Structure formats: C-alpha cells, structure tokens
C-alpha cells in the first residue's frame, strides 16, 4: 500500500460536504502518485499565481528555512505539500477554486512584503511588535484559507437569521428555504480535514455569496466556477479582509449534513450558541 493510500483511505467521499470535490478527490486519491496527478491537473488548467508563475505542488522540503509559506508560493508558484490530509485538501481547493486561492495568496504576499519593509526599520518593528507586523488582513486571509465555508444563497432573510444566531429560524423554520435557496460549499482545507472525523462542534467562518436563483440549478462544476469568479471579484472590490467579514456556522447544522437534526439537536447551546450582545 502506498503512503498516499495510508492517509487518503480515511476519507469518506460519500459525505455531503465533499460533493464539490468528490470526483476530483477520488481521481487523485486513486492515482499511483497523487502529487504527480495534482500537478498534471494544475498544468491542464494552466493554473498560475498572480505573478503568472505556474502553480506546482512540491515537497515540503522545497520550502527554504526562514521563507514564509505564502511568499514562497508567490515567488515560485510552488505550493509546499506534505503527505497528509491537510495539504491534500489544500491542493483540492487550489484546483476547485483557483481564482480565490490566487487572490488570497496575492493579499498575503503583499502584506508579507509590507511587514518586511517595516521590520527593516528596527525602531518601527520594536514599537509595533510581532502581532501588529503580521496584521489583521493576514489573520483574516488565513482564517478564510483554513476554515471558510461559502454560503451560496438567494435569500437575504436566511443570511440575516444566521448572522444573529437565530438557529431555530434558519435551520427549522426556514429549513425548506435553506434547502431550495441555499447551499454550502467548503473552502477551508483545515475545515475539511476536521470533518474526516466529524463532531458536532465543528464551526466554519462563513462567507456569503449571493447568486441569482437560476445559478443554484447549475451543475456542481459550473457552480464552483461561478462562485470562484464571484468571490474573487468580492475580494478585489474590498481590497482586503477583516475577521468581521465572517460569521460562525456549526457545519453539521446544515440541512441534510447530519442525523438527527431535530429540535433537540439545534437546542444545544454549547454548539449553537446565542449571539453575545456587546
């Protein structure tokens, strides 16, 4: 049994939260050399970073000591990829939502360069401290990359209910609306990794993508391409990110993602927490 099979065999591809990466994931996982298969796919998609450098999935050993991960991707196009579920899902997201990934990498690389110039001035660096040098934008971009769920919906009332943690309204009273006019596509690769062994408290940082009703009827690959373009445009318009751009979503509360999803399931305030008022 190959090293790839030893960790990829833990994935249950029938899980509803993997629907958008299922076909690609099963194909890559079945390949004799999964990293080579990823690179063939990336080449076939002509996938490049914002600097025009082809994206390649390279061994972790290719990342030089002291070089930031995101800066390395920006400078070389190489994505350091270890033999584990975390990096495997990261690669699947690169191939599924490449425009979002490229935009996030561009944001991160720009902030890393900015921090580098500030560090060069030792007096400024000492005054700001390490956390300030990293910056809120990088923190938010990391959250997006690692733990985001994309809520695709045509219903603003559903979004409003979720933002204020009106869980009973969103998941029970508006359940049919959620199932007809909403969909959740996972983006964060750490989130996907956690869901290999699902537990009730797993919570995503949710990013809203509002589409037309007709778009919800598209095939999954078509919808992923549309969402990829829409979120890229959102990020470009905003020119940045903050943690306030997200709201929490206990993902096993998504209709149809777990059983049972009865009144008692959603009444668990340790998971479906009420909104804390300031």
Query: How many helical elements?
Result: 15
Count of individual domains: 2
User: What oligomeric state is this?
Assistant: single chain
Give the termini separation: 54 Å
What share of residues are in beta strands?
A: 5-15%
Query: What is the CA-based Rg, rounded?
Result: 20 Å
Q: Please report the total strand number as a whole number.
A: 6
In what order do the strands lie side by side in the largest sheet?
A: 4-3-5-6
Task: Give the ordered list of helices and strands.
Answer: HHHEHEHHHHHEHHHEHEHEH
Class from helix and strand fractions: alpha/beta
Q: Residue ranges: pLDDT <50 for 5 or more in a row?
A: 120-132
Query: How can the largest sheet be summarized?
Result: 4 strands, mixed
- The overall average pLDDT, rounded, is 91
Helix share, percent: 40-55%
- Rough shape? globular
Describe the structure.
This protein is α/β, with parallel strands linked by helices. It has 2 domains: 14-137, no CATH class; 143-266, no CATH class. The protein has helices at 3-8, 22-30, 34-44, 69-76, 85-96, 98-120, 122-128, 130-134, 136-147, 156-163, 167-173, 175-181, 189-194, 220-238, 263-266; strands at 56-58, 78-80, 148-153, 182-186, 203-210, 247-250. It has a 4-stranded mixed beta sheet. Strands 1-2 form a two-stranded parallel ribbon. Helix 4 crosses helix 6, helix 6 (98-120) runs antiparallel to helix 9 (136-147) and helix 6 packs parallel to helix 14 (220-238). Residues 120-132 have low confidence and may be disordered.
């Amino acid at each position: 049994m190959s090293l790839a099979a030893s960790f990829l065999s833990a994935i249950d591809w029938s899980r509803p939260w993997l629907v958008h990466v299922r076909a690609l994931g099963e194909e890559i996982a079945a390949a004799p050399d999964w990293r080579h298969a990823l690179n063939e796919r990336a080449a076939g998609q002509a996938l490049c970073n914002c600097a025009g450098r082809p994206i390649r999935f390279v061994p972790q050993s290719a990342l030089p000591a002291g070089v930031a991960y995101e800066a390395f991707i920006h400078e070389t196009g190489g994505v350091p990829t270890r033999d584990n579920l975390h990096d495997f899902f990261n690669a699947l997201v690169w191939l599924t939502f490449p425009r979002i990934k490229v935009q996030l990498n561009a944001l991160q690389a720009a902030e890393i360069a900015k921090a580098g110039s500030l560090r060069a001035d030792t007096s400024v660096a000492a005054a700001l401290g390490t956390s300030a040098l990293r910056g809120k934008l990088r923190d938010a971009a990391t959250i997006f990359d690692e733990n985001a769920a994309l809520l695709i919906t045509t219903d603003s009332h559903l979004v409003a209910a979720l933002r204020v943690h009106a869980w009973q309204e969103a998941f029970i009273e508006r359940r049919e609306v959620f199932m007809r006019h909403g969909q959740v596509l996972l983006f964060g690769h750490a989130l996907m990794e956690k869901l290999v062994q699902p537990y009730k408290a797993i919570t995503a940082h949710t990013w809203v993508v509002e589409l037309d009703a007709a778009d919800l009827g598209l095939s999954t690959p078509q919808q992923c391409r549309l969402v990829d373009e829409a979120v890229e445009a959102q990020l470009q318009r905003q020119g940045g990110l903050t943690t306030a751009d997200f709201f929490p979503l206990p993902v096993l509360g998504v209709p149809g993602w777990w059983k049972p999803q009865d009144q008692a399931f959603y009444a668990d305030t340790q998971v479906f927490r009420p909104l804390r008022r300031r």
